Amino acid sequence: MITVSDLKKDFPIFTREVNGKRLTYLDSGATSQKPNTVIDEMSNVYKNNNANVHRGTYVLSSETTAKYEDVRSKLKNFINAKSSDEIIFAKGCTEGFNFLANSICKDLSPGDEIILSEIEHHANIIPWQMAADKYNLKINFINVTDSFNLDMDHFRSLLNENTKVVSIVGESNISGMLPDIKFINSLIKEKTDAIYIVDGAQLVPHRKIDVQDLGIDFLCVSGHKMLGPTGIGVVWGRKELLEKLDPVYGGGDMIEEVYYDKATWAPIPHKFEAGTPPYVEAIGLGAAIDYLTNLDMKNVEKHSDNLRLYAKNKLESIDGLNIIHTNSDVAGCTFAMSVDNVHATDISLMLDTFGVAVRAGHHCVQPFHRKLNLDATFRATGYIYNDEEDFDILADAIKESIKILK
Question: Which residues are catalytic?
C-alpha cells in the first residue's frame, strides 16, 4: 500500500510553494519528480566515483563501470527480460524509436507495410514516416473508437502478408487507454511474422511489465517518466533480433576492431551504444528502479487504478468540462480536457495561479487532436506521489477558472 503523505517526504520539490499555494503537480506524463535517492546517487557518483566507463583500468573507472552495468541487471529483472544483453541504453524513447526505425526498415522491401495507431505520440510516428519515405514503405493507422480505444476489427483488416512492423502505444498519454498487448500479439501472429514494438513511456512507470509474457519483440522506455533523470532511456529487444540489427551510430566503444577501410562491431548491447554513454544518468535510473521495486509495482499499479477512478468521477462532475478518457474498466490516470470557447493554455495558466501544474498543448499527439477538431487540450496525469486531495484541488481550480474565463 502506498501512503502518499509519507512518500512525498522523499521528494524535495514538494516542500516548495507556487504562487503562495502548495504545489499540486499533475504533469508526470511529461516528466516525473525525483526522489532524494536518485538525486543523492547521481551526486555521489560525481563526488566519489566519476570516471568514464569501459575505458579505464583504475579504481574509479572500474567502480563506475560496475555501477553502470549493474543497471542493466536491474532493468532485466524489472521487465523480466531473458538477458542483460537485451538492454540497450538510449537517450529516451524518441531516440529508441529512431534507432529501431532506421535499423529495421533498411532491410524491408518497397511496398512493405507498418501499422501504427491514430493515438500515437509523435516519437512513434515521425521516425517511421522518415524511414517510410526513405525506403518506399507504407504506413497504416489503426482507427480509434469514440470511446478512445483501438478498433480491433479495423486492426485485423489492416494485417496482411506485407505487414512487417506493428508499433503501438502501451498506455496513451492523452486518454489513458491500455491496449490489450497480448491480444494484439495473438492477432499479429495469426496473419504475419511482423516485428511487434510497444511504446512503454507511460506504461512502464505505472504497471508491472513482463516482456516475455507479453510476447512483444521490442519495448521503448523513458527514464525521466519513472523517477529517473532526463537523457536516459532503454530499448529492450529480443536477443536474436538485436543480433541481426546493424548499429545506427558509429564511434568509440561500439567496435570490435577498426581498420582504415572497415570496422567490426562489438557484441550486443555495446554495438548500439557509441561514444561515452550517459553513465551518471543510467546510474540515476538504477536508483529510480530500486525505489519503484521497493514500493512493489503491484502497489504502484493499484494506486494508479484507485486514483484514476476517483479522478474520473471528480472531473466528470464538472459542468462544461470535456474529457478525453477511455471508457475501459482499466486505464492510466491520464485526462486530456477542454472547455468550449476557452483555450487550453488560458486554463492551464489560470490553474497555475492555484499552484496546479498541468500541461497544455497537443501533447505530441497532434494528428489525433486534429481528428477531434481540437487545437489543444490541457492534461492532468497522476503518479505515486498524487492522492485524492490533489484532484480535489484540481477540480476546484478548474471550476473557478471556468467561471473567470467564460
Answer: 364
